[in-house]
Structures are given as C-alpha cells and as structure tokens.
Design goal:
Radius of gyration: 18 Å
Number of helices: 6
Order of helices and strands: EEEHHEEEHHHH
Strand content: 15-25%
Helix content: 25-40%
Length: 135
C-alpha cells in the first residue's frame, strides 16, 4: 500500500492510496506534526516507504496508516495530551516499571485489559485528589 495524497484536520492526518482508500491516524502519535503550522505540514516528500517532513524531522510510514491502533486508547490519550505528567513517577506510584508504561503509552506494547484498567483507575484517583485540593 502506498499513500499518494495526504491532508489534515485539527486531530488527524488523512491519507489516500492508489486505489482511493482513505485512512487516518491521530496526530497525538506525531506531536511535531500536531503543533506544526499548515505551511510546515505542506513541506513533505513521499519516499519509498513513507512520508518525510525534513524541517520537522518527522516520518510516517505508509504501513502505519493501516495499523489497528490509529486512534490512541483512553490511557494513551491521557499521557499523550498531558506531557506535564511525570511518567516515571506515575509508574513508581503504582508499582510499575517506567519503561513498560512508556511502551504502553507509545503503542510498542499492549497492556492486558486488567493492567490498562488499573492505570486508568490510578489516573482517576489522582484526578479526585487534585480536585479535592484546597487552596
């Protein structure tokens, strides 16, 4: 599969292949593209296996448009949109290896349903603690 046309909206990059099939991926996976201007996004080249933005030092493979996880899970979305959260300290607070949590966040590994729920439960617990803070 080879993408021959791309376009963007606020949250996604879209691609169309030679057969006219359309795909999309969340820009949360590509923070440089997410924060780029329209002008920066327009300066790309197609290569043998993907799309390259030289000025942004960003690449997207054609294959990635077909991945099942084009949309981040709620757990991934939380960490990808809240960069202020210290992942290592969060992992420590729930007794998890920080590298493993980073792998879950970035989609390199998939947590079990139970593990993902435990992470989400801890996020909710922290949210309740933060909203209960009195200043």
């Amino acid at each position: 599969m080879k993408i021959i046309k791309i376009w963007f909206d606020t949250d996604y990059i879209y691609g169309a292949d030679e057969s006219g099939n359309e795909y999309r991926q969340s820009l949360l996976w590509y923070p440089k593209l997410r924060s780029a201007t329209d002008e920066q996004r327009a300066k790309y080249t197609f290569g043998m296996g993907g799309i390259h933005w030289r000025a942004l030092d960003e690449d997207i493979s054609f294959e990635s448009f077909t991945y099942e996880d084009a949309e981040p899970t709620p757990m991934q979305r939380f960490f990808l949109t809240h960069k202020e959260i210290n992942v290592a300290e969060f992992a420590r607070s729930i007794g998890m290896n920080a590298t493993l949590l980073r792998n879950y966040i970035n989609g390199f590994k998939k947590p079990s349903a139970e593990r993902e729920q435990a992470i989400l439960d801890h996020i909710h617990k922290l949210g309740k603690e933060l909203t209960a803070a009195v200043f």
